[in-house]
Amino acid sequence: MAEYEACIxxxxxxxxxxxxxxxxxxxxxxxxxxxxxxxxxxDYKLINxxxxxxxLVEEFDDITFNYLPRDENQMADAxxxxxxxxxxxxxxxxxxxxxxxxEAPSYCYNIEEEExxxxxxxxxxxxxxxxxxYPNQIIENDKRMLRRLACDYV
Length: 154
Description:
By secondary structure, the chain is mainly alpha-helical. It has 7 helices and 2 strands, in the order H-E-H-H-E-H-H-H-H.
């Protein structure tokens, strides 16, 4: 029933926006094949849902129902997650969401070429142990970490 409810909400949204051509993708084979007429709807609870959906379908000039297995449906999962997070004011227009596909994890784009300073990796710890000096432009969290590392340094 939840799959039919989701389909009905999507169709009504399309009708409100005066969309005439629509492709529906669902990961529920049951709903898709029943709406295509390839499977019968024998569950009496679903018959009224199917009837309502078919009534809404009449509002579109062209509509297709496509089955998309869950493991191929990552975009829908991402959009569902966004929909559960974002609060929408019904009196305002919803701003479009721009999406892009990254070829590598985001943190890889932040890694710049390593600067060589010819000091060993423990230079900052050693300097703190000897002189109680912090490196330039260090933040409070890093200072705490440096003190913690210095306690273990022998």
